[in-house]
Amino acid sequence: MYNKIIDDITDFIFISDNPEKSDIIFLPGGSFPSQGEYAARLYRKGYAPFLMPSGGVSVKFGKWQGVKEGKENVYNGNYRSDCEFLTDVLIKNGVPESAIIGEDKSGHTRDNAFLSRKTADERGLEIKSGIIVCKSFHARRCLMLYQMAFPKARLKVCTFDAREITRDNWFTTEEGIDRVLGELARCGGQFVGDIKEYLNVKIAD
To answer: Is residue 151 exposed (0-12), middle (13-18) or buried (19+ Cβ within 10 Å)?
Structure first.
């Protein structure tokens, strides 16, 4: 019984697509170099002409939390936001500054999505397709939020593993269980109002 439950949770949370040529690559806020490095590889391979790193400082901590993965010697700027850090990672990995459209006001994933939409609209960008580069255990929630912000766009999720948490091992450590089940709870709790509003509109129609 528990194996089936674990499999179902894994399949829901750990979604991952093959990249497709798109209008833009989205980077929801974070401090893992792997995120920017992966997005830069996709850019260099021609998957999108623009990248949009997103994120200010965490609403939980009120300040930028520092570089993860022990790459402080490579990415050693005096970063003030996720966006500033990810922009530096992108540039150091071969992305020209002209291809980067930053959003540096958001403090959580929902804002990453909706302020990225606001930024795109202000720039006059029509986003019909996009790639979201995010942590593997963050994939489902990122996709749900960006789908809400860009409802007409075809979105693909391309993931990297962080904190040594993968779809194959998350249930073997306390941190993995906490992180993944935390995402599962947020995928329900954070969308209650949106789903009810959507259903009410459908009923009214």
So the answer is: exposed
CA distance 80 to 106: 13
The secondary structure of residue 162, as a DSSP letter, is B
d(Cα 101, Cα 83) in Å, to the nearest integer?
Answer: 10
Count of helix runs (H) and strand runs (E) in the chain: 7, 4
pLDDT digits (tens, 9 = 90+) for 39-65: 999 999 999 999 999 999 876 777 788
Q: Which helix (H) or strand (E) holds 155?
A: strand 154-160
Interval 146-155: pLDDT, tens: 999 999 999 9
Distance CA 161, CA 165 (A): 6
Pairing assessment for the beta strands 51-53 and 129-135 based on DSSP bridges: unpaired
Q: What pTM did the predictor assign?
A: 0.93
Provide the 10 A C-beta neighbour count for residue 110.
19
